[in-house]
Design a protein that fits this description.
The protein is mainly alpha-helical and 211 residues long. The protein is built from seven helices and no strands.
């Protein structure tokens, strides 16, 4: 059972990385003058949609938290709406944090909020897919020694890694967005950091498979 979960976890991470790669190349076939650097806001939106869609499909197919309880349609609708509210709340929360760290309050709001949505895609969406809108479960997973499965362990690592990747992406470039290339470069550096850091759990799970 453990080896099966490890393999499924590995494939999930690889497909998530693959979805980011697809978001870079596929839009160029449908959008004129598409470029990650020149049209960074468009790419951020497309990447967020790709990663969110892949996460939803993967977790629905893999079902790491299978429950024996039968849930009604109203319960599922309520749960879905709660997840949407949690996602929006995380977007606004990250936006406020970015402003407190130096992003403009009024100017370039779209750039800052897009960055917040992008970060929420890599942190909040996986938490909602795996744990649902359950604050107690979130606190348990991200507390010390609160992980009970390899899926939760991976979620803990990748979420923290995404925050570290964001910091590494913004550290050499202040969030003042004064030059056009700063915005795209900051997001590119963050995406690269996230890909590199998300590779660590894939690396460890691969070692477990080889053993």
């Amino acid at each position: 059972m453990k080896n099966t979960d490890i393999k499924r976890l590995l494939y999930t991470h690889l497909l998530c990385i693959f979805s980011i790669i697809l978001s870079i190349f596929i839009p160029s076939f449908f959008l004129e003058n598409f470029s990650v650097l020149e049209t960074h806001l468009t790419w951020l939106c497309i990447c967020s949609v790709f990663v969110t869609a892949f996460n939803l499909v993967l977790y629905l197919v893999v079902k790491p938290n299978t429950s024996t309880k039968r849930s009604s349609l109203s319960y599922k609708v309520t749960r879905f709406l709660k997840c949407g509210i949690y996602f929006l709340m995380s977007c606004f929360l990250f936006h406020i944090i970015f402003v407190l760290y130096g992003a403009p309050l009024i100017e370039l709001v779209l750039e800052t909020f897009s960055f917040a949505v992008f970060l929420s895609t890599f942190t909040t969406v996986p938490c909602l897919c795996l744990l649902g809108p359950n604050i107690k479960a979130w606190l348990r997973v991200f507390s010390r020694n609160g992980v009970t499965s390899i899926w939760e362990n991976s979620l803990q690592i990748t979420t923290i890694s995404s925050f570290v990747g964001t910091w590494l992406g913004a550290f050499p470039i202040p969030l003042d967005w004064e030059r056009p290339w700063q915005v795209g470069m900051a997001h590119l550096l963050y995406a690269w950091s996230d890909l590199w850091l998300c590779g660590w759990p894939c690396y460890f799970t691969t070692l477990d498979i080889l053993e």
